[in-house]
Amino acid sequence: MSEHKAEGGRTGMWALPVLRKFAPPEEVAVDDRGRTQGKDELVPWNVPGSRMRPREGKAGRGFYAPSLRGAPTSTRQAEILNSAVIGAPTGTSGIVTGRDELSKTSIAHDSVTAYNSQPRLISSPNVIVMGDVGSGKSSFTKTALVARPLIMAKRRATVFDKKDRAGEGEYSELARAFGAEPIKFTDDGTGTRLNLLDKMISHGTGAAGQLRLLKVVTRLARNDTPLDEWEEEALRSALRSTLARFDDGRDATLADVLPALASTANDSDYAAHSVQARDKLHQAGLSVQFTLNTLLDDYAGLLDGETSKSVDLAHKLTSWDISQLPDDGPAVPIVMAIGHMWLLGRLRYDRGWHTTCVYEEGWHIAAGPSASLARANQKLSRGLGLSNVFVFHKGTDIPEGSPGMAMVQEAQTVYVYRQSREADAAWCQRTFNFAPERAHDITQLSDGHHYFKYGSHVETLVRHIRSDWETALTNTDEGMEAAAGTLAKGA
Fold it and tell me: How far is the C-alpha of 401 from the C-alpha of 286, rounded, in Å?
């Protein structure tokens, strides 16, 4: 400013060095953008802004400070000035899932990102979502835990979809929006057929993986009664001879294994065994054959042939639609076992991907005969880049000391929606180590609100925020179809 004034040739007392800084500004020609002609200098008194001091005397002496206090800055550099009000409870890493109701800041979290952080923020990538029907937990799972991560590189999801919606699973339209047709199962022969011996399902594990799946399926068909050593040997022999017969042709099927079970005693590998041993092996083979015969009869069209041509398991989102299968009986756990076998094979084959596996109506997996299988998969989750998401109505349905309870307790990311019954809310408070007063607060939660906790962090009250597309996707069939079309055009 002093150079500018000097160049302007001030005279009189304003030319004195001490008084020069109090001199009023010279009239400067400016353009319509508020800049001096021929210079890049911005003239502040010609630019709209806060109301200046009204006294001309002070204004004339260069006091241009605003007469009113300005609004607090919204920049991140000033967060330290109001840390209690502005500071976000979770930081900014991960995926935005909602808004903290205390600070009104965004909540960002992703179990995979948190697990891979340095240092690690959580010790397990597995997730629990719990709440009453209609509280908003399904909308949250579908959007924040499935759809949003899928737009990221090297992320995919598979869903065991048990919730019926207009004759199909509730994830069906979301799967179609991402270019995949849901794999729909029924017990009347009109749905998808899966071949237990399909190489696509065993995915590189070979005969060992196929035998493991057959043993699991037989056990589930017997209401979770395990095979004895004679039955396991008979099944192993029958599978070996069946695969040898179809070595150069089509894939063998479960129906092809049944005749071999009845003739196990004729296997040359047992020629040196005693008559009594071969007879016992024959009886064991018949026992397994009768179990699998009953299974194929009860669920015709589900397991009794080659895999349906429509099945495509290579998409970023794979929906196993089990909504039309009965809750009782082995059908649901058997399809889940097949899905687990395929998923583990794919995880081992496609290294470098992070996969979210969602169990809607999670009590089927936590309290049913598939709990041990899911528990084993959960132990492998860290090394294979797998994050399991279990969605429950209430925790009181899970037996104490069961594999399902162990899965719940190991999860390091928890979202608890409203639990209307005090007993269910108290279960959440105890199991997830919430503050004592939280048991009552959980019963009072509004729709779309939940308490969020990860690792040892303090629980946070969060409101789930959805985009217009997500709202349409989770609310109406018409909206889902429109949303799918919009996504397809955008792709």
Answer: 35
Buried b (16+ CB within 10 A) or exposed e, 318-346: bbbbbbbbeeebbbbbbbbbbbbbbbbbb
47 sits in which H/E element: none
Alpha carbon distance 74, 62 (integer Å): 28
- How many angstroms separate the CA atoms of 379 and 403, rounded? 12
Model confidence at 27, pLDDT cuts 50, 70, 90, reads low
Beta bridge partners of 156: 355
Joined tokens for residue 233: 């040997």
Domains and CATH numbers, the chain: 2-60 (no CATH), 96-192+308-490 (3.40.50.300), 206-297 (no CATH)
Return the axis-axis angle of helices 206-221 and 275-298, rounded to nearest 10°. 70
Structure confidence at residue 385 (pLDDT) = 83
Report the length, in residues, of the chain: 491
- Give dist(CA 119, CA 334) in Å, integer: 39
pLDDT at 5: 43
Q: Is the pLDDT score of 366 beyond 80?
A: no
Q: Which amino acid is at 474?
A: T
What is the C-alpha separation between 196 and 202, in angstroms, rounded? 8
Give the residue among 298, 344, 399, 363 at the shortest CA–CA distance from 162: 363
Distance CA 469, CA 440 (A): 34
What's the pTM?
A: 0.75
User: For residue 248, is pLDDT > 80?
Assistant: no
Q: Rg of the chain's alpha carbons, rounded to an integer?
A: 33
